[in-house]
């Protein structure tokens, strides 16, 4: 048993993630609750459970995909693996120092330049200055931003923004890569380039990857296993073709 | 856990603080001159109000006010900045996990650099106006360390509460204004008797630190190490409370933050 466990990069066991109804922490509700008898309280009982009792795992070097309708809890689950969201029940074990969410257009301080944001993202992911410096040229080159790298990120177009985001995460590669809808970045040319890079990163046998995507076809070429979430519950977890076929049948009807 | 996170993410805090300052500089015509001009101009305002309207009589009164403002600004900007900090950095913290007290440290570094520039100017002024310099002056270092710990404690607690109570920023800005006027920034505490002064030093941290700082910088007195230790202990207690609140809240922050 333990022999298999050491092969796992990520192990998610019976995880439940609930969003507190934000009114529950509003002081007006809080004060009202103090006055009301316990039964009538507007309680945390109307929590919204975004992820319910989901289990899956990722072996070292493996790529898995997560599919599901909008609002089925895919991104929340990914955020929990990244450590951004806390888990309410269950346990997530991640065996890596560097683990971060690669998602479109987030994570930058808009007033700072692209150059500074490379360092900030690197430090935020837990890399050292030397590691960042070593990858710096490659990041700037891959992003194709040219002189814009010294301009504040708020002056970037959305395409440039995501090019930079993609370049940072794909060059400063964490051992565990969590991808939230990234496979189409920038213009057509960059899209092809990033897709090729993506594929290269994913197929790297030292890297474990989780991809969240709507496009089932792009997952087919990349993933060895698929987790299908439906309304927060794990509906299926297994071989790619099997799950994707079932998912497609379910969605199309 | 705290030490490990501190080691791992302190680079983030310092780099972020420095680049934040750089971007503030880049965004204005006078750039870093504002860090000097800002306390200088406010010094003129308070000197005018206190010396001419209320008739305060203190030697080197402008310097007296400048030192007060220098010390106050660190605490004021840190605490007010910390109230909404988890919200305003959600772009970063939603992407990768960063312990939230690191954000408080970042804010502190940012304000610390500004404060040290002001302290540097004060030192030059002290030499220029020929205030006798004694070894006691070096006591400003332990004073600022205690001050830093205090601000960290208050900052972490405010950062935690700020996530859940969005009205806190209003309450805090009023409270901070009150604390500012209480803190002897632009008036001496002469009219307080011995007994009242003792109580004051035990309940008003910023006022105590400001008076101590002036004592060692302007008057060549030694620091009141006993009370300094007292405030260090309080600062440490607040820090432990604040940091553990932030760790405990970690589970829910990002779900409440937008």
From TrEMBL, chain A:
Top-level lineage group: Bacteria
Any GO MF annotation of the entry: ATP binding
Matching Pfam families: ABC_tran (PF00005)
Domain (ABC transporter) ranges: 29-252
UniProt keyword list: ATP-binding, Nucleotide-binding, Transport
CDD domains the UniProt entry points to: ABC_KpsT_Wzt
Entries under InterPro entries matching the protein: AAA+_ATPase (IPR003593), ABC_transporter-like_ATP-bd (IPR003439), ABC_transpr_TagH-like (IPR015860), Bact_Polysacc_Export_ATP-bd (IPR050683), P-loop_NTPase (IPR027417)
Family the entry assigns: Belongs to the ABC transporter superfamily.
Protein name: ATP-binding cassette domain-containing protein
TrEMBL record, chain B:
Keywords: Cell inner membrane, Cell membrane, Membrane, Transmembrane, Transmembrane helix, Transport
This protein's record includes keyword Transmembrane helix: yes
Residues in ABC transmembrane type-2 domain copies: 30-249
Transmembrane regions listed in the UniProt entry: 32-55, 61-92, 112-131, 137-161, 168-187, 228-247
Subcellular locations according to the entry: Cell inner membrane
Membrane topology: Multi-pass membrane protein
Major subcellular site: membrane
Family to which the UniProt record says this protein belongs: Belongs to the ABC-2 integral membrane protein family.
This protein's name: ABC transporter permease
Organism: Anaerovorax odorimutans
């Amino acid at each position: 048993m333990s022999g298999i466990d050491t092969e796992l990069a990520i192990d998610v066991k019976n995880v439940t993630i609930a969003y507190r109804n934000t009114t529950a922490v509003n002081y007006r509700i809080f004060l009202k609750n103090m006055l009301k008898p316990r039964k009538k309280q507007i309680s945390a009982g109307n929590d919204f459970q975004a992820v319910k009792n989901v289990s899956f795992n990722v072996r070292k070097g493996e790529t898995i995909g997560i599919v599901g309708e909008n609002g089925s809890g895919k991104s929340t689950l990914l955020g929990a693996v990244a450590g951004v969201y806390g888990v309410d029940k269950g346990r997530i074990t991640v065996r890596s120092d560097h683990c971060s969410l690669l998602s479109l257009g987030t994570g930058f301080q808009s007033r700072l330049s692209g150059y500074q944001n490379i360092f900030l993202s690197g430090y935020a992911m837990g890399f050292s200055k030397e590691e960042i410096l070593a990858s710096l040229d490659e990041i700037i080159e891959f992003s194709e931003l040219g002189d814009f790298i010294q301009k504040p990120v708020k002056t970037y177009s959305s395409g440039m923004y995501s090019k930079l985001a993609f370049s940072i995460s794909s060059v400063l590669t964490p051992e565990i890569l969590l991808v939230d809808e990234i496979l189409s970045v920038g213009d057509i040319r960059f899209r092809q380039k990033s897709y090729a890079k993506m594929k290269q990163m994913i197929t790297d046998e030292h890297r474990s990857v989780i991809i969240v995507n709507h496009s089932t076809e792009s997952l087919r070429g990349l993933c060895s296993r698929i987790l299908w979430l439906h309304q927060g519950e794990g509906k299926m977890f297994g071989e790619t073709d099997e799950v994707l076929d079932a998912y497609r049948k379910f969605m199309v009807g | 856990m705290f030490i490990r996170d501190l080691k791992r993410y302190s680079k983030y805090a310092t780099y972020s603080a420095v680049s934040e300052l750089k971007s503030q500089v880049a965004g204005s015509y006078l750039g870093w001159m504002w860090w000097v001009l800002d306390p200088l101009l406010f010094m003129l305002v308070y000197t005018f109000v206190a010396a001419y309207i209320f008739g305060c009589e203190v030697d080197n009164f402008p310097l007296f006010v400048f030192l007060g403002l220098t010390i106050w600004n660190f605490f004021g900007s840190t605490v007010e900045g910390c109230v909404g900090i988890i919200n305003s950095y959600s772009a970063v913290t939603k992407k990768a996990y960063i312990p939230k007290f690191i954000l408080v440290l970042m804010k502190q570094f940012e304000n610390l650099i500004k404060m040290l520039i002001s302290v540097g100017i004060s030192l030059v002024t002290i030499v220029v106006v020929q205030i006798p310099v004694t070894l006691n002056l070096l006591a400003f270092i332990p004073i600022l360390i205690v001050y830093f710990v205090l601000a960290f404690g208050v900052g972490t607690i405010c950062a935690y509460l700020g996530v859940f109570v969005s009205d806190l920023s209003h309450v805090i800005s009023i409270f901070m204004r009150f604390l500012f006027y209480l803190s002897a920034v632009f008036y001496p505490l002469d009219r307080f008797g011995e007994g009242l002064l003792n109580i004051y030093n035990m309940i008003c941290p910023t006022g105590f630190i400001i008076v101590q700082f002036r004592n060692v910088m302007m008057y060549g007195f030694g620091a009141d190490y006993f009370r300094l230790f007292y405030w260090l202990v309080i600062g440490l207690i607040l820090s432990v409370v604040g940091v553990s609140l932030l760790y405990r809240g970690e589970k829910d922050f990002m779900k409440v933050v937008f």
